[in-house]
Amino acid sequence: MFDNLNWWEIGALLLLALLIFGERLPSVISDGLRMLRSLRAMARNATSDLSRELGTDIKLEDLHPKSFIRKHLLSEEDEAALRRPLQSVYNEVKKDLTGIKSELKEVADAADLRSGTTGSASSPAPAADPSPNGSGTLARRTFDADAT
User: Fold this and answer.
1) Whether 58 and 11 share a structural domain
2) Quick check: 91 and 115 in contact, CB under 8 A?
């Protein structure tokens, strides 16, 4: 519950609670805990009442409409029949995207922006950089990916 708070922040919150509530702090804590227990009991009773009314063993996760329909209205054969037409479309789209990914990888390998060359392997190497100090070393171009 307090995963994103460090010990200093928790200590500051406790000190603030002590300053705000003062001598009433123990009674405020006990009232809060009593309210939390009663909320948990109400939620437990609501799910048990609902499962008793429906005549099945139901959990809170089963109340999501999609899972509720799957569990209580559809059989496994009905669910498979609903998925069958969409599965072939999914497989075709996945195959197309895999092809596009491989083509993009080939284009990226051909461009090879890191080495500064473009085109195929038969293209000539870049010329030496006429640097002001006359070293004649290759210039390493850096690109700002956020600016493009």
Assistant:
1) yes
2) no
Total domains, the chain: 2
Map residue 73 onto helix, strand or coil: coil
CA 128 distance to own-chain centroid: 46
> Taking the chain, what is the end-to-end CA distance rounded to the nearest angstrom?
41
Q: What is the pTM of this model?
A: 0.35
Ordered per-residue pLDDT tens for the chain, 148 residues: 567 888 899 899 989 988 998 888 889 889 999 999 999 999 888 888 877 887 777 676 767 777 777 776 777 787 778 788 888 888 999 999 999 999 998 888 887 765 565 444 444 444 444 444 455 455 566 766 666 5
Contact by Cβ (8 Å): 40, 31: no
136 within 8 A of 126, measured Cβ to Cβ: no
Q: Where are the alpha helices (DSSP H) in the chain?
A: 7-21, 25-54, 65-72, 76-111
The answer as to whether 26 is a domain residue is: yes
CB 27 within 8 A of CB 16: no
